[in-house]
TrEMBL record:
Its EC number is 2.6.1.42. Its cofactor is pyridoxal 5'-phosphate. It catalyses: L-valine + 2-oxoglutarate = 3-methyl-2-oxobutanoate + L-glutamate; L-isoleucine + 2-oxoglutarate = (S)-3-methyl-2-oxopentanoate + L-glutamate; L-leucine + 2-oxoglutarate = 4-methyl-2-oxopentanoate + L-glutamate. This is Branched-chain-amino-acid aminotransferase. GO terms for molecular function: branched-chain-amino-acid transaminase activity. GO terms for biological process: L-leucine biosynthetic process; L-valine biosynthetic process. It holds the Pfam family Aminotran_4. It comes from the Eukaryota. The modification N6-(pyridoxal phosphate)lysine is found at residue 278. Belongs to the class-IV pyridoxal-phosphate-dependent aminotransferase family. Keywords: Amino-acid biosynthesis, Aminotransferase, Branched-chain amino acid biosynthesis, Pyridoxal phosphate, Transferase. The keyword Thylakoid does not apply. The gene is BCAT.
């Protein structure tokens, strides 16, 4: 009898996380039901100009062309080879108490994914999931000298139905492989990586926040680790992935908007450079300018380019402007993919959704500061906002340009377009709208 009770207690102890998850999901489903009813009611009363899209045609969901590997990359890895070494009970970390108060990238989950590449051993090696642990590398490793490093930023969302989803992962894989090629690092099969990543997320699934204000940030990283000092392509590399539960990345004013420093003395990217690739070396030189912005009481940097002061990006976000043209028509515009800006997945998704909505013109064209000033003076600028995985949309309320504060009326609009965008994208990400962009993790 005592032994039986001990076994039962052991079983309960071992499965307590499942029980907690079940209770949390039940509470969540109940509260979501009442939340949904309240939201539906509120929406009916507000009679918005913009309808929330509940079905999006497959014509708008095309995946990018898979990358073709160079012949000398060698063998690819496959998810079926994945080896798993779980953390011991002593290695497990306590999970954050309050999902809504998470700051960015300070807490990490219990496991990581590692895939080594050694040209001398034939190419990509067997993928492995291990406890989160420090990396050991030779002090001559290329990443430490020539910044041979690139990364991605993705998120896993716990949906209103309790399922975990990731958003358009094939787009991240495509961008990562393009960056790998530009960095002299080996390319890999994105689909196989996504399968390994899905396994990592399901092992650490308890770390995916139970909140729509938070998510699990995914940081795939690829580094050159050859122990040689030559500036040359990497014969050894490590593709690793860490996970971190996060809230929103950007600090904002009390009205939820950000203020920007636009100083034409600084630029982030230039034609022929790598502004359109997500490599670590693009980010280090921005840190001091960001510090200068903070010292002036501004939250982000608006990166300008060229004699005509073109707007390129906001901090680590793409930029969008909503305005009224000379004919009185509303236009949504974002800079084109000219090589100066990162091809954001949020940017692409917004262009797709807005074009499908068909309520206003959607353009990809150069925006300059003189044009912004002119629109402001004529009362035709409605909204400016940054977009990215970190925060979906980040409205802008002020730009400090050539020492003058320009006040942007983004937060003064009655039915702002950036709110429609945020709602539509998060509805997809958190599973309120069934959509092929949101991929369920088994
Ligand atoms: C420089 C830069 N621009 C734009 C973005 C937004 O891209 P995405 O929408 O894919 O997150 C990011 C974030 O990855 C970024 O680092």
């Amino acid at each position: 009898m005592t032994t039986k009770m001990a076994i039962n207690a052991k079983d309960i102890f071992r499965n307590q996380h499942r029980l907690i998850r079940f209770i949390e999901q039940s509470i969540r489903l109940c509260s979501n039901q009442s939340l949904k009813t309240a939201q539906k009611h509120a929406k009916q009363q507000a009679e918005p100009d913009f309808q929330i899209t509940t079905s999006i045609s497959s014509a708008y969901t095309a995946a990018p062309e898979p990358i073709k590997h160079d012949a000398d990359v060698g063998q690819q890895f496959a998810a079926v080879q994945l080896a798993v070494r779980l953390a011991s009970p002593q290695q497990l970390q306590p999970k954050p108490d309050n999902d809504d108060a998470l700051s960015f990238g300070k807490v990490f989950t219990d496991h990581m994914l590692k895939i080594y590449y050694h040209r001398s051993l034939g190419g990509w090696q067997r993928p492995e999931i291990t406890p989160l642990e420090n990396l050991v590398m030779h002090p001559a490793a290329k990443v430490l000298h020539y910044a041979v490093e690139l990364f991605e930023g993705m998120k896993a969302y716990r949906g209103v139905d309790g399922k975990i989803r990731i958003f358009r992962p094939n787009m991240n894989m495509n961008r990562m492989n393009l960056t790998a090629r530009r960095s002299g690092l080996p390319t890999f099969e994105g689909e196989e990586y996504i399968k390994c990543l899905s396994r990592l997320i399901s092992i650490d699934s308890e770390w995916v926040p139970h909140s729509e204000a938070a998510s699990l940030y995914i940081r795939p990283t690829l580094i050159g680790i050859d122990p040689t000092l030559g500036v040359a392509s990497s014969d050894s590399a490590l593709l690793y992935t860490i996970l971190s539960p996060v809230g929103c990345y950007f600090k904002s004013d009390s009205d939820g908007a950000v203020s920007l420093l636009a100083d034409p003395r600084y630029t982030r990217a230039w034609p022929g450079g790598v502004g359109n690739r997500k490599m670590g070396s693009n980010y280090a030189p921005t840190i001091n300018v960001q510090k200068e912005a903070a010292q002036k009481g501004l939250q982000q940097v608006l990166w300008l380019y060229g004699e005509d002061h073109q707007l390129t990006e906001v901090g680590t976000m793409n930029i969008f402007m909503f305005y009224v043209n000379e004919n009185g028509e509303k236009v949504l515009v974002t800079p084109p993919l000219s090589g100066l800006i990162l091809p954001g997945i949020t940017r692409d998704s917004i262009l797709t959704l807005a074009r499908q909505l068909g309520k206003f013109e959607v353009r990809e064209e150069v925006i300059t500061m003189p044009h912004v000033c002119e629109l402001l003076n004529q009362g035709r600028l409605l909204e400016l906002f940054g977009t990215g995985t970190a925060c979906v949309v980040s409205p802008i309320n002020r730009i400090n340009y050539l020492g003058t504060d320009l006040y942007i009326p983004t937060m003064e609009q009655e039915k702002p377009i950036h709110e429609w965008i945020r709602e539509t994208l998060t509805d997809i990400q958190y599973g309120k709208i069934d959509h092929p962009w949101a991929v369920v993790i088994d």
